[in-house]
Amino acid sequence: MRVPGQDNQKIPHHVVIIMDGNGRWARKRNRPRAAGHRAGVNTLRKIVEHAASREIQALTVYAFSSENWRRPGKEVSVLLKLFVTSLQREVRNLNENQVRLQFIGDRERFPEKLQQSIKKAEALTATNTGLRLIVAANYGGRWDITNACRQLGGLIESGKLTPAQIDEELMQSHLSLSELPEPDLFIRTGGEKRLSNYLLWQIAYTELYFTDCLWPDFNPDHFDTALAWFSERQRRFGQTSEQIKQG
Ligand code: IPE
Ligand code: IPE
Ligand code: MG
User: Fold this and answer.
1) DSSP secondary structure code for residue 196 in this structure
2) What is the SS3 assignment for 20?
C-alpha cells in the first residue's frame, strides 16, 4: 500500500471499472441486448486510449462475472463470441500502442477457441511497456479469494508453509493483480451501487465512484470527471486528516 501523503496521489495509478448498462442502453433504443454489448466494446476501445494518454498505469475492466453464466444461454453465447471477435480485431492495435493485455478469472470454463485467443493475446503483448489492460472474465472476488486459499492449502500440505506464516502480504501475493499497484479508483457505470463480486479484497481502500451513465454512453469526458472527483479525495488509510496534512 502506498504511504499516504508521500507521493502524487492526484492521478490514479490503477483504475478498475464495472462496465455496466449495455442491456439498458440497447433496450432504450429498442435494439437487442447484443447491440448494447457491441457498443460497449467501442466504448472500451476509446477509454483504453484515453487512459493511456492520461498516463494511468493499469486499467482493470469487468467483462464477465462468474455469475453472468446465469443469463439466458443465448446472451452468454453472444458475449463469448464477442470476446473472440473483439480480441481478434483489437489485439493488433493494442499491441501497436504498447498496451500489455492480461486476463484474470477462471478461464478454464471458456471454449477452447477463446482460451487460445486469450493466450495468444497475452503472449503477443507480454513485453509491452505501456498501459496494462486487465480484463476480468469469468471473474469473481469470492473465486479469487477461494483460489488463493486453495493454493496456500496446497503449500501447507506439501510442507512448504505453516499456517502461522500466512499473513496479509502472502495472501495478497496469491490473488489476482498482486503485481500491480492497488486499485486507486473504482468506477461503476449504469447506476447500481454494488460491487457484484468484483475485486473484493483488492478494493479495500479504493475510492468508489458511481455514475448513472450507461457504459455505451460513457466517454473520455466522463472518465475525466471521475479523475477530477478522485483528485479531490483525501485518502487517509486509517490515519487522521491532520496527520495527512502534515505529510
Ligand atoms: C454489462 O452490461 C455487461 C455484462 C454484464 C457482460 P449489462 O448486460 O449488465 O447491462 P444491463 O445492466 O442489463 O443494462
Ligand atoms: C457486473 O454487472 C458484471 C459486469 C459488468 C461484467 P452485472 O450487470 O452482472 O451485475 P448485477 O447482476 O446487476 O449485480
Ligand atoms: Mg448489468
Assistant:
1) T
2) coil
In a domain? residue 150: no
Residue 200 within any structural domain of the chain? yes
| CATH number of the domain within which 29 lies | 3.40.1180.10
Nine-digit cell string for 46: 476509446
pLDDT for 6: 40
DSSP per position, 122-150:
HHHHTT--S-EEEEEEEE-HHHHHHHHHH
Tracing cell 446472451 back to the chain, one arrives at 75
pLDDT in tens, 62-97: 999 999 999 999 999 999 999 999 999 999 999 999
Instruction: Tell me if 124 is assigned to some domain.
Output: yes
| Residue 68 a catalytic site member | yes
Q: Cell numbers at residue 132, please?
A: 496494462
Distance (Å, whole) CA 214 – CA 146: 31
Q: What is the number of domains present in the chain?
A: 1
Which among 22, 68, 147, 184 is annotated as catalytic? 68
Whether the Cβ atoms of residue 177 and residue 134 lie closer than 8 Å to each other: yes
- Ligand 2 test: best mutation among 68, 143, 186, 187, most atoms within 8 Å of CB? 68
Cβ(216)–Cβ(21) below 8 Å: yes
28, 219 contact by CB (below 8 A): no
Task: Judge if pTM exceeds 0.90.
Answer: yes
Distance (angstroms) between ligand 1 centre and the Cα of 247 equals 42
